[in-house]
Structures are given as C-alpha cells and as structure tokens.
Amino acid sequence: MNRNDVTEKIIATKVAQGIRWADVAERLGQSKEWTTALCLGQMTASPEQARIVGEVFDLTEEERKWLKVVPYKGSLPTAVPTDPLIYRWYEIVSVYGATIKELIHEEFGDGIMSAIDFSMDITREADPKGDRVNVVLSGKFLPYKTY
C-alpha cells in the first residue's frame, strides 16, 4: 500500500457515495481547496484531520496513517499536461507568466510568491453570457535576501 492507493480509494468512495469536497471541508474546518489537495495526496493531514477523512471515506487505520505522511508534491503525470482543463492553466502560465513575473517584480521587487504561505479560492461567477470560473491565488511575497 502507498499514498496513491489511498488517494484512489478516496476518489472511488467519493464517486460511489456522491460526496462533495465542500462537505468534507466543512467537516474538517478547512477550505474546500486545501481539503481537496489533501484528499488528492498533495497535503499532510494532522492526526485529527486523518481521523475525520478516514471516517468520511471509510479508510482503515493503515490507510489513515498514509494521510499523515509528507507527500511528494506535484501530481501531474507528464511535463506538459494532457487533461484539457489543466492544460489551460499551463497555457495561462505560458502566455501570461512573463507578464505576471514583471508585474509582481515591479510592485514588490525581486522575489517570489510563496506556494507554501498560500491560499486559493475557487468560486462560480454567474454571467448571462455563460458562467465564469473565478480563481483567487494569494501567496506571501518572499524577497530574495542578499548576503
């Protein structure tokens, strides 16, 4: 058994029982974005979070232990994503990445946006021309240090 096996069981149970990520997040007291990342094997659960996720997805004690292991982060099976939705994010970074970099550097200076001290919010935005996906990414700015 490994973390991927646990992730596959979580997804299979989610589908079979019609579980929504937002409902799991509410039980955990965390955002749906972080909770989904946890359940997909990209975050580390506390003992209490592992217990709750285990209850929701009927995980064994051994499977719950895997939720507490620090994962190997990065879940894409290929360097260039082939899934159409994920590929669009790749396309956004390919087209707008240099612009995002320039504007962040112009506003903050030389540094990076943290993906560790980070939050994300995904919501549906009603629009008469077709609903829109609203994604807000918020990461702490970390300046490069001189030494």
Question: Would you give an account of this structure?
Answer:
With 147 residues, this protein is α+β, with helices and mostly antiparallel strands. The protein has two domains: 3-67, 434 Repressor (Amino-terminal Domain) (Orthogonal Bundle); 84-143, Cyanate Lyase, Chain: A, domain 2 (2-Layer Sandwich), CATH 3.30.1160.10. Helix content is 50%, strand content 18%. It has six helices and two strands. The chain has helices at residues 3-17, 21-28, 32-39, 47-57, 61-67, 84-108; strands spanning 111-125, 132-143. The chain has a two-stranded antiparallel ribbon. It is globular, with a radius of gyration of 18 Å. The model has no long low-confidence stretch (mean pLDDT 96).
